[in-house]
Protein 1
Amino acid sequence: MSSTRPPLPPFTRETALEKVRLAEDGWNSRNPQKVALAYTEDTQWRNRAEFVNNRAEAQAFLERKWRKELDYRLIKELWAFSDNRIAVRYAYEWHDDSGNWFRSYGNENWEFNEDGLMARRFACINDLPIEEADRKFHWPQGRRPDEHPGLSDLGL
């Protein structure tokens, strides 16, 4: 049984922006079980050099990710969209268990099924070591507040 995850394709600028913010909010929750539900049962990902081939693998990937990437905070920005595809750029800040901070920059290409579930996700990511004093993402863990600047506003 498949669930529906509005907004649904075909996307308009407004619905693509909404879909991007919903994805950002989900990932900022750092709840792997909840986030995985946004993907099809047979979702396919490429994340860096790792390949994910279904929803269960996606959930396991996210569990590993957020055990490693501590105090994770993410901002996504719409880059382009068409019928059932969205491209985003994003940055997130995190630190490892030794206290080393990073800002990770990336681009993702998303493809959705008719129910609004993401069927394919391709991500390219680069990690930049930063000093804690150079962090730009300052909000309590969870959803980015509406008044917090986005990537373009931060010059990223």
Note: The CA atoms of residues 101 and 134 lie 9 Å apart.
Protein 2
Amino acid sequence: MTGSPWSATTGSGSGSRDRKLRDEDLTLDGEVEVIGALCDELGADRVRLLGGSSGGCAATAFAARFPERVEALLLYGAYADGPGITRPEVRDAIVAAVRSHWGLGSRLLSDIFLGEVGAAERERFARFQRMAASAETAARLLEQVYRNDVRDRLPLVQAPTLVVHRRGDRAIPYRLGREVAAAIPDATLVPLPGSAHFPWAGDAEGVVRALRTVLAPESSRTTSAVEPAAVLLSRREREVLRLVADGLGDREIAEQMVVSPHTVHRHVANIRRKLGRGSRTAAVAEAARLGLL
């Protein structure tokens, strides 16, 4: 289940482009009530709850308010501090562009949401946004994204929680996902490479593998319900990482693994990129913090 949309302009229960939003449509309490009503309608006493982007706020709020109903909480590209997404002047400029010039605003949001994609794909998504919502609806939904704040509810979450976030996410900065994972008791953070905000853009398979560890653990190749190494680094990269952590250089690792130093150098570069660290030492420290060693 998901508590809300991936973005301000592709859902949030807005339905038809012509539907008029009510004030209660734009509150966290209202979204929590919707999740509860849906669970009741489905006869689901306990659920594994998935929240993406601003939907992560609603999912978190529901898990904090009804801990007995949430078996597991999965958050992708999520945040708890809406005002902290970007600077006030940037936020105001984006909302103003969306409200006053929806053609320009929709293209701006496409650039933010999709990451590294071609111009044709960005333009297709911009057209889809304009078909799905009016300028005023999109602006009001975007304002809600920036207004959401569930930081005080994070410590109240009791369900096992998996937080998946791309390091280069242009819409919701990675630091906000890291803060969510740090504030929820015993949450597991799985950082992924990439800049796209939408889970189906970029390396969608990596997102699926991460979420499957909780949603379908019986079909996952991991040995633990939440094992970030299985989705972040390849088996070969984990072997190289362990040898780097032991203090071996590229040539020594190459001799031990019977590969070329160039191959080892490439693996180390990939490890540093995926862990978001500029040096071998920093990458090892980050890997240890994430439980990859």
Note: Confidence is low (pLDDT under 50) at residues 1-16, 220-227.
Protein 3
Amino acid sequence: MVDLDTAIWLALGTVYLAVLLRAMLLERREPYARAAWLLLLIALPGIGTVLYLLFGEPWVSPSFRRRGREAYAALLPYAPSTSASQPPEWARNAFRTCEAASRWGLATGNMAHVAPGPDAAIDAVVADIDAATRTVHLSFYIWLSDHNGLKVLDAVCRAARRGVLCRIVADAIGSRALIRSPHWARMEEAGAHLCASLPVPLGLGFLAGHRTDLRNHRKIVVVDGGITWCGSQNCADPAFLPKRRYAPWVDILIRYEGPVARQAELIFASAWMTETGEDMRPVLSADPPAPLAGGFAAIAVGTGPLSHHSTMTNIFVAVLAAAQTRAVITTPYFAPDPPLLDSIIAAARRGVELSIVFPNRNDSWITGAISRAYYPVLAKAGVRIYEFRGGLLHAKTLLVDDTLALVGSANMDRRSLDLNFENNILFESRALALEVSAHQRRWLAASTEIDHGGVAARSLPRRFVDNLLTTAAPLF
């Protein structure tokens, strides 16, 4: 007869072997990520098994996945009609990649401008909400009850009280302090409809139907269906009090008018419909915004764990492939998968003047260390590497040849590539690109360029640590 201790060990051994086989047989996983998990499972069986069960796969319950896909399919007919005009040939594949991801065509006839700074952006968002007559749709990963956060919250309350239909989404983890505060209830009392996105009871993801750390990282503002804001900025002060030692947080937010606003609203509406069950088709039955004379081509795209594998990577790669002479990237979190890393290296090797700006001080020490571990391979390819010293550079921008740009919520790390729900807008406009470039030039002026010689002259211990970090990058 098997005693209790033996039975426990047999059970644990069975779980371990099942997890090991699962890690080996799982489809939709790159070989480098598979190797990293197998290495961890073999080196640390107990800890590795627990970590894999919690974080090993970007799993979403079948019911959530079904609801998400049904909601998206139901709303697709409300996308603006595809324009007959085409972007320049050199940028066409980048737009086609976004079209394949979103399942709608590019929108022409858009106008936009970049907010001059984070406080000015919030003031402008508040002004748009105060001018709303029909709907206000907001989605933020982090919403704080600080000065800027409460300004937006008060504007929502004012809009709801005068009869504007306000739908508000805040990530249940990123905005948990606000959601648990009286301010959240105050919006509901004013008449706003609220959704705490992706809640996780007591940190147990399997009870909620998704991974605990799978988050709604989107930043979406849509007012009256015709104005949308997209960028990296959360609803908070740049001082960002929960992590004040890294302040100021330096972001970018762009205000768009035109048909691309309907696409952004579809991204919001599909997520809202998935989580709340409200049928959003009547909301979108109104005519989409008409193209504006002299406007430019753009496309809004939402990505996440319901997207096809590597969708966000494919978008980054396609935009980089369009670069002919120059590309500038800003990203606070850099842990690329091999296709994205290879595309950056390939662009530099073919003669594109490619610069990447990272924050000098990162609020995620492990991601910051992983980012620096990639410096040698980037430097060897000829990439110019900068570290921003004016706070935490949180803006996620990719600008190509001062004409084509991708700006939104997605970082170049595994969380944005594989796990989180993200939203970005790709546009082709020299005027708007030059506004983005002006911000990038200011960030570069406040940065220190990393010496390639110093990066290349790594000691053997440093090389060992860097290689270990890049090997472990898929785990983060």
Note: DSSP finds 19 helices and 17 strands in the chain.
